């Protein structure tokens, strides 16, 4: 398959301190790339320590300040980069105004970043981290037809169920596609399902803390996931790099290994790790969901997904190492 170049150039990763971005930066540095990571607070040494510990970081990583809500904030970070990986996005609504907290930063923030990218004459491709929630949140799914990249979630259903994260990711991705078309920009999107695996940041992100909760016996937070696809964090990072490096990559790429109902996941985990008090019952918030994912687009590129056991084994190992599990 056609590759951009044998020598690894300069790339930018937004939201560098995050769960997914940190692992992506690890793999990019290992591959020989020069990486500019954006963070909101470059002075927060504690939050960024894990990045400076990565192999190659001292020689080939630089961290710069950028905020999604500031126009032009990413100009400096992306200038001179051939590739931009846009992972930064709010994933948690703490307060009462989802529009301000999650929709605006996702949509306006993505457009701010793309406007900065447009000013960079060296840019070859932008890889945007979207989400499988932009595909599966709909009430007209035929259980016999696996969902692929042609599927888009329903705005009305997201609003009705107040699924602000799914709505934000979908509107941000759609805005990015429109911008790319209008500005002739090479954009590829990656749509991971629920990401599981070792966390490089010491402080667990929203989803990783929910996995920890599940292992400790909490049913409430996980019950909201209902039926869900799962994917290993290393597969998510490798997928971003593969679609960046493969010149012929086009459009959206669903990145998901296994789809399970939460009681199926819990049964599997309870059998594999009988020493954890994994809950057996979950409240059903959405009624019956019946969907599968068709990830053949990625698999045709030679991509192989790690299984559910490996992602949880690696995740649990890291939770022990970081002291989150006794
Ligand atoms: N985790 C999953 O299961 C999953 C699944 C599908 C897709 N995704 C997508 O993967 C990406 C990364 O998520 P994650 O799980 O790694 O979450 P995370 O650890 O919370 O990382 C999110 C990052 O976004 C940054 N961010 C948030 N608001 C920002 C703003 N206004 N300006 C600049 N940066 C901002 C945060 O920066 P600070 O460090 O400054 O707070 C953080 O680094 C997101 O796009 C998410 O939608 C995640």
Across the major sheet, the strand order is 3-2-1-4-5-6-9
- The top level CATH class name: Alpha Beta
> Level of helix content?
40-55%
Tally of individual helices: 14
Ligand species: NADP nicotinamide-adenine-dinucleotide phosphate
Keywords: Oxidoreductase
Protein name: Tetraketide alpha-pyrone reductase 1
Pfam family, one: Epimerase
GO molecular function: oxidoreductase activity, acting on the CH-OH group of donors, NAD or NADP as acceptor
Layout of helices and strands:
Elements (H helix, E strand, L loop, with lengths): L9 E5 L4 H12 L3 E6 L5 H8 L4 H4 E5 L9 H4 L4 E4 L11 H21 L6 E5 L3 H4 L18 H6 L3 H20 L3 E6 L1 E3 L9 H10 L4 H4 L3 E6 H13 L5 E5 L2 E4 H11 L23 H4 L8 H14 L5
Parallel strand pairs: 1-2, 1-4, 2-3, 4-5, 5-6, 6-9, 7-8
Antiparallel strand pairs: 8-10
Helix pairs in contact: 1-11, 5-8
Bound molecules: NADP nicotinamide-adenine-dinucleotide phosphate.
Verbal overview:
This protein is of the alpha/beta class and 326 residues long. The chain has one domain: 3-Layer(aba) Sandwich (Rossmann fold). The chain is built from 14 helices and ten strands. The strands form two sheets. It has a seven-stranded parallel β-sheet with strand order 3-2-1-4-5-6-9, with helices on both faces. The chain is globular and about 55 Å long. Mean pLDDT is 94; it is low at 1-6. The structure holds NADP nicotinamide-adenine-dinucleotide phosphate. NADP nicotinamide-adenine-dinucleotide phosphate (NAP) binds at residues 15, 17-21, 39-40, 67-69, 87-91, 105, 109, 129, 131, 169, 192, 194-195, 205-207.
């Amino acid at each position: 398959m056609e590759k951009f170049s044998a020598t690894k150039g300069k790339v930018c990763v937004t939201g560098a301190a995050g769960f997914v971005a940190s692992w992506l930066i690890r793999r990019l540095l290992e591959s020989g790339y020069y990486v500019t990571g954006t963070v909101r607070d470059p002075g927060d040494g504690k939050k960024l320590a894990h990045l400076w510990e990565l192999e190659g970081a001292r020689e080939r990583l630089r961290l710069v300040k950028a905020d999604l809500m500031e126009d032009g904030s990413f100009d400096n970070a992306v200038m001179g980069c051939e590739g931009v990986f846009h992972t930064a996005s709010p994933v948690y609504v703490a307060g009462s105004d989802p529009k301000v907290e999650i929709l605006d930063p996702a949509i306006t923030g993505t457009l701010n970043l793309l406007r900065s990218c447009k000013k960079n004459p060296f840019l070859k491709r932008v890889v945007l981290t979207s989400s499988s929630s932009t595909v599966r949140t709909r009430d007209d799914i035929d259980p016999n037809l696996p969902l692929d990249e042609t599927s888009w979630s329903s705005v009305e259903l997201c609003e009705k169920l107040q699924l602000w994260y799914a709505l934000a990711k979908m509107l941000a991705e759609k805005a990015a596609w429109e911008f790319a078309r209008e500005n002739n920009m090479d954009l590829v999107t990656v749509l991971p399902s629920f990401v599981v695996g070792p966390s490089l940041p010491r402080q667990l992100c929203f989803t990783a803390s929910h996995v920890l909760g599940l292992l400790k016996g909490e049913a409430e937070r996980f019950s909201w996931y209902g039926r869900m696809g799962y994917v290993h964090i290393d597969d998510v990072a490798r997928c971003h790099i593969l679609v960046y490096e493969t010149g012929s990559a086009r459009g959206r790429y669903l990145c998901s290994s296994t789809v399970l109902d939460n009681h199926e996941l819990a049964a599997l985990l309870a059998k594999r790790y009988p020493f954890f008090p994994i809950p057996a019952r979950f409240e059903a918030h959405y009624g019956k969901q019946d969907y599968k994912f068709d990830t053949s687009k990625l698999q045709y590129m030679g991509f192989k997904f790690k299984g559910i056991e490996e992602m949880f084994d690696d995740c649990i190992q890291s939770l022990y190492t970081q002291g989150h599990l006794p």
